[in-house]
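Batch job 17 of 40 flagged for manual review because the log was empty.
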Amino acid sequence: MSAPAPPSPSKTAKPYSIAAFTDMVNNSSIGLSGFVTLAIFIFIGVLLYNFGAARLAYCAFTRMGYGGGGAFLMSIIAWFFSGIYYPIHALFLTSECSVPQFVGGRRRR
């Protein structure tokens, strides 16, 4: 017994139209829920990528002596232009951005 053939896409749908896209999603093996899940993961990845650029910018410009407002403004710019900011930071801004370590000395008695 063979599997039934998937329904054919609508004959009136243009190749790059919304109807063709919905036909493709509905007829694919992942379905709409898989598409939404993939879109959510991509969205989270983009947020994390942009957050990393903003954090690096804030830390770098705080260490350079900018006030909180200037560093915040540069982090917003880095958020929106993270694809450009990462190479600039790697080539020209070699600041360390680390969390301070709270390491104590000897234990007091």
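Reviewer: the log was empty due to a logging misconfiguration, but the result itself is present. The chain has a mean pLDDT of 77. Unflagging and moving on to job 18.
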